[in-house]
Amino acid sequence: MELPFIVATLTRRGLLAPGRPIRVASQLNALRTWGWSLAGELRQAAARDPDRIAIIDDQGTELTYADLLERSLRLARALRAGLGVAAGDRIGVFGRNHPGLVETIVAATLLGADAVLINTGLSPAQLTTVAEEQRLRVLVHDDEFAERLLGLPADLHRVDERAREDLIRTALPGQLDPPDRDGRIIVLTSGTTGTPKGARRPTPTGFGPLVAIIDRIPLHVRDRVMIAAPVFHTWGYAALQVCLALRATIVLHRRFDPAATLDALVRHRCQALFAVPVMLQRLMEVPPPDPRPPLKIVAVSGSALPGGLPSAFMDRYGDVLYNLYGSTEASWASIAVPADLRQAPTTAGRPPHGTRLAILDDDGRPVPTGQVGRVFVGNEMLFEGYTSGADRERHDGLLDTGDLGRLDADGRLFVDGRADDMIVSGGENVFPAEVEHLLAQLPQVREAAVVGVPDPEYGQRLAAFLGLYPGETLDADAVREYVRHYLARFSVPRDVVFVKYLPRNATGKVLTGELRDYITG
User: AMP-binding enzyme C-terminal domain: from which residue to which, for each copy (predicted)?
Assistant: First the structure.
């Protein structure tokens, strides 16, 4: 990424504003010594703004940047001295959004250990498999998950919330030098269809990744930001990285509740909210507060935005919505700004500066504008491969996202769904996402999911699952006629099932396997 662009963006966002010389020097030295790991980001923030509030939790506890760094250092020293954690070891982090989660991740990176971020929705069997496959040395977990740990290996050190506090309180003094190796962040794939895989995240080597995001999503130094997206998820973790780099005040709640979220946004005067799309749907189901939160940015990622949601949300809260399309493996591919979402609500936007995006056919050749192909992306933060040693297909430095999509004449990306979600019905290629977006625009529909299921005559057929707003009704035949009016005959769902809620994992992704079982099981 070009130096003039980096400097211009950092200046616009306030990162190059003058400060006390001794603090600026200490900040730069922290980055020079510790790099752009989470430990380095926290150290530079504490050096420049030690007394600024770093985190506010849902109990009202406030930690300054100096507090957060000191607690993380003490935990790191205690893990090294008491449990023998060293560079290259792996620490499982199994918790919701709260300061202890952040302290644990930072402590791991301070030691050069790998932090494995574990989805709180995993079953005991999945958790056991993850612990074994990731070769965890220590598991730091929230108390509420204790019962899920019963099947874990006996030699795995377990640290609950009280034990973590004891480690911090009793840590002996000592020096922590930069480790010989960078601790990696290992994010687990969503695991909606089986045991999740561990994806190794690279450590940034400069300002490029931060600049790519904040150029398109206009966050500023010292903003007040609520991270509602789970920090164990790629999007929530990315939000944490950005916030530490910007020396933001971060608001964390262990559980997402729409009314409590809106209250916190107002009470803490948050200018930004990081969320996943289903959270926006839930926010739309409760009355807006008076006064409205002072939001300038609502940044979402993690799954597709339902067709009617962007316009409805912005009609209520203003043109503040930003949608980042990416994945655990690819980090980011494109970002849709409010103007994009007003013009084309289903777009995934355009690639940010320094990102390459290509739509390729099965032979790796570019397809014409408007034609569906495989989405490939290149940026500074492509994952380093799965911890199993496997990788994804790559072409000329571009990574296969596993999605199918197309570009319009203005360069905007539209994602048609996962390549393995596309079905062939009676010889026709059918994209469930296209039908989902259409059904989501019905005023009675709160949420919609469309999946392919086996069919003895056509090979596969579509099944639609609809959650309606309270008090609303719809007729299955009317739903089919509605789809028939807008799409081809083979896109009409044969099965239309009304449900109270769609089954989702902890990051809000629909569990399509459970929906298929409803039809086939």
Answer: 434-509
For the sheet containing 249-252, what is the strand order?
62-64, 53-57, 249-252, 224-227, 272-275, 297-300, 321-327, 331-336
Q: What is the pTM of this model?
A: 0.89
Give the span between the Cα atoms of 231 and 144, in whole angstroms: 17
The Cα 103–Cα 140 span in angstroms is 11
Under a CB-based contact definition with an 8 Å cutoff, are residues 247 and 53 in contact?
Answer: no
pLDDT tens digits for 321-337?
A: 999 999 889 999 999 99
Residue 81 is which amino acid?
A
For residue 306, CA distances in Å to 181, 312, 344, 445 come to 42, 11, 12, 10
The CA-atom distances, in angstroms, between 277 and each of 190, 227, 303, 308 are: 15, 13, 7, 12
Residue 30 amino acid letter: A
Task: Report residue 96 as tokens.
Answer: 């919701």
- CB contact at 8 A, 356 and 398: yes
| Helix (H) or strand (E) segment spanning residue 259 | helix 258-267
Token readout for 412 is: 């905007």
Q: For the purposes of burial, counting CB atoms within 10 Å of the CB of 509, is it exposed (0-12), middle (13-18) or buried (19 or more)?
A: buried
DSSP 7: H
- DSSP track, 33-91: HHTTSHHHHHHHHHHH-TTSEEEEETT--EEEHHHHHHHHHHHHHHHHHHH---TT-EE
Sequence-distant (6+) residues with CB within 8 A of 381 are 201, 202, 204, 209, 331, 332
Residue pair 37/203 in contact (Cβ under 8 Å)? The answer is: yes
Q: Which residues are within 8 A (CB) of 493 and not within 5 positions of it... i.e. 6 or more apart? A: 435, 450, 461, 462, 463, 464, 479, 480, 483
Structure tokens at 349: 């936007």
Mean per-residue pLDDT, 459-466: 93
CB 285 within 8 A of CB 258: yes
Confidence of residue 84 (pLDDT cuts 50, 70, 90): very high
Please name the residues in contact with 297: beta carbons below 8 A apart, sequence gap of 6 or more.
217, 218, 219, 271, 272, 273, 320, 322
The pair of structure tokens assigned to 362 is 């099965």
> How buried is 519 (Cβ within 10 angstroms: 0-12 exposed, 13-18 middle, 19+ buried)?
middle
Angle at 377 between CA 374 and CA 379, to 5 degrees: 175
